[in-house]
Amino acid sequence: MSDRTPVPYDVRWHATGTTTKRALELHAAAHLGVTPDVVNSGRLCPRCGSSRHGRPWLRAYGVAHHVSLSRSGPHLVTVLADVPVGIDVESVADVARGWDATLVLAPGESAETDLDRARAWSRKEAVLKQRGTGLLIPMTTVDLADLDEPAALDGEAWADLDAPPGHVAAVSWASLGG
C-alpha cells in the first residue's frame, strides 16, 4: 500500500459460529467505543428490498456507519470505515473448482494460478461491494491493473489482507479524495 493512500478502515476476524449480526455489533462496539446495545444492524437487498440478504448496514446511536462483511466456510470477517467499503474472503480451492475466466477477468487481464484466480475474485468482489452493487454488476467490469500489488481505481483503492490458510481476502474503499 502506498504511503499516500490513507487507510480509513478497521478489519476484524470473528470466531467460528459468530452470527453476522453479532459480529457487526461487537466490531462496532469495540471500534466506536460504545456498548453493543446501542448498535443496530441488519441487511437490505437493493434489488428486492429483502432484509434476509443483501448489503449490511449498521447504526450506532442512530448514526449510520459504512460496513461490509464476508464469510467463507467457518471464516467471518467484517470491516467498518469512514468511507464506503467492501470486503471479501474466498477459499482458494472453491474458486479453483468454479473458475470461469469469462465471468471474472476484464479484457487484457490474466490469472495463471489458482491463487491468482482467487485473489482476482476476492479483489473484484470487494470493489463491487464497496460500490454498493455486489455481484449484480459483472466482475468483468472491474479492471485490476496489477494482480500482485494494491492499486488505485478511479477514486477507489483496494488491498489484500492476511487471511486464514487456504483463503485470500481483500478490502476496497472509496478514497478520501475520490
TrEMBL record:
Residues 84-149 form the 4'-phosphopantetheinyl transferase domain. InterPro entries: 4-PPantetheinyl_Trfase_dom, 4-PPantetheinyl_Trfase_dom_sf. SUPFAM superfamilies: 4'-phosphopantetheinyl transferase. Keywords: Transferase. It comes from the Bacteria. One of its GO terms (molecular function) is holo-[acyl-carrier-protein] synthase activity. Pfam families: ACPS (PF01648). This is 4'-phosphopantetheinyl transferase superfamily protein. It comes from Nocardioides oleivorans.
